[in-house]
Design a protein that fits this description.
Layout lengths: L1 E5 L4 H19 L3 E5 L11 H9 L4 E3 L11 H6 L3 E2 L14 E5 L2 E9 L10 H12 L7 E6 L3 H11 L5 E5 L9 E2 L5 E3 L6 E2 L2 E2 L2 E2 H10 L12 E10 L5 E10 L8
Parallel strand pairs: 1-2, 2-3, 3-4, 6-7, 7-8, 8-10
Antiparallel strand pairs: 1-14, 5-6, 9-10, 11-14, 12-13, 14-15
The protein binds fe (ii) ion (2 copies).
Length: 265
């Protein structure tokens, strides 16, 4: 089974980077499943039906969220009813989103879950106990490979969760920091791991925001309105290959520069 997972797709720049690179990536990697983190899809703040629709049309099978998933009040009912949007499982039950996605394509099945970290993040339940509860509930059910998006700030928390999940999940893929890490590996019991996939969007930015705004804010300590950057489009993603037992046999970082720039939203 072959999978591409795009790191946090940020605003119009991210959508354009993903959509323009996808045909070439499909030719190169022949993925059975295409996944993306979409918590920043709508100008960095959550997602909307309008911003997600083109990705689903282009062949993205499901998207994960994160701490920004619910930033758009107008999207809450859409998130509640679109089962291709996977929410962090360790948020309250009443928070909209599907806590467990089961995807099917040409006889292949793949599970997808998401968890948020607790360190330097908004409050949520413990991701380790949440994963254990999921696993205790899931292990007697249909045996399909499952991928986890661990959406967290702390590298140690993500790394520890990777070890905790080794042998249980097909992959533990980090998101949220928007910076790709060069530590992809397959853990001893067959779980693919990377601390952060990185961001799909404007590379000439500070994690998606116009760089001048963040530099000035850090110099002056005066709050200012964030604006999405549209310069230096880049795709950050990973390619995974799973064997017939659902164990990972390959993880490869994808980091592609896209020509051109997008117009302001
Ligand atoms: Fe993000
Ligand atoms: Fe996030």
């Amino acid at each position: 089974m072959r999978i591409i997972f795009f790191g946090d797709v940020y605003g119009k720049a991210g959508r354009e980077a993903l959509l323009s690179s996808l045909p070439g990536l499909k030719d190169e990697f022949r993925p059975d499943f295409i996944l993306a983190n979409a918590e920043n899809l709508a100008d960095g703040k959550g997602l909307t039906e309008k911003t997600l629709y083109p990705l689903l049309q282009a062949g993205v099978h499901a998207v994960t969220g994160g701490n920004h998933l619910w930033d758009r009040a107008e999207s809450l009912s859409y998130i509640a009813n679109q089962n291709k949007i996977i929410k962090p499982r360790n948020y309250p039950e009443i928070t909209p989103g599907n806590p467990y996605g089961v995807l099917e394509n040409e006889g292949l099945k793949l599970g997808i879950i998401s968890l948020c970290g607790q360190i330097y993040m908004p409050p949520c339940d413990n991701p380790f106990t949440s994963l254990q509860n999921f696993w205790d509930h899931q292990k007697d059910k249909e045996d399909i490979p499952i991928i986890l998006d661990i959406h967290a700030e702390s590298t140690s928390e993500k790394r520890a969760l990777g070890w905790f999940a080794d042998g249980k999940l097909a992959a533990v893929l980090g998101t949220h920091t928007h910076i790709q890490t060069a530590d992809e590996e397959i853990l001893p019991q067959g779980t693919a791991y990377i601390t952060d996939i990185g961001m799909t969007g404007s590379h000439d930015s500070v994690i998606g925001v116009r760089k001048e705004i963040i530099v000035n804010k850090l110099i002056s300590c005066i709050p200012s309105r964030y604006e999405s950057s549209h310069l230096g489009l880049q795709v950050n993603a990973v390619f995974l290959e799973l064997d017939n037992q659902g164990k990972a046999c390959k993880i490869e970082r994808i980091r592609r520069i896209i020509e051109g720039e997008t117009n302001a939203e």
